Amino acid sequence: MNSAVKLVIFDWDGTLFDSVGQIVASLKFAADQYSQPLTDADAKSIIGLGLPEVAQRLFPTVPELHSEILQSYADHYVAHSKGDMWFEGVADMLQELRDAGLQLAVATGKSRKGLDRVLAQTQSHELFRATRAASETKSKPDPLMLAEILAETGLRADQAIMVGDTSYDLEMALNIQMPRVGVSYGVHTVETLQHFQPLHIAHTVNDLTEFLLEHVKLRLAV
């Protein structure tokens, strides 16, 4: 089925929001508080997962410390993330997509509390038809959050596109047979993203905007 695109679902960190550096710094700070070794690469590799999954992957030998480490991470992130902001061009992209008649949504590994905070910070809550955070559903790459967004919007998977910077985003979309687009300016490499057969891998926000608008026009013309 070659249906018209009506919905674009975005990951948040590393896709819309320039926050990867602060996430890594806050994870390393929290790990250090509890004498847990953690490299930049390992911290970066789990961006996109829900926080319980992050703790399980990064600190598997100290499950009794997970809640304390995650609280330390969250406290540090909130205290030091004042400079986090949209990637350049994101605000314009979201408005252009809305102007083209598309609905927008967010599917993120953040907690609901964290997502609501950054939606308020960017004054963007009204831009999104639906949002899902990992704390209120299953973590990526399980496709449940996408299924919930589709149910809320009344659309099918083939009427939506998932956009993300990690394998977790694209695998989640693949698991529900939703078209998907990767971005290379976030966490995972182009080679990693290509394993999940994206329609396109965008190297800049402008590239992403142009592809999405052109893809929508092509699908509408079919």
UniProtKB/TrEMBL annotation:
Coiled coil: none annotated. The keyword Hydrolase applies. Pfam families: HAD_2 (PF13419). The keyword Chaperone does not apply. Gene3D superfamilies: HAD superfamily/HAD-like, Putative phosphatase, domain 2. Keywords: Hydrolase. One of its GO terms (biological process) is DNA repair. It comes from the Bacteria. GO terms for molecular function: phosphoglycolate phosphatase activity. This is HAD family hydrolase.
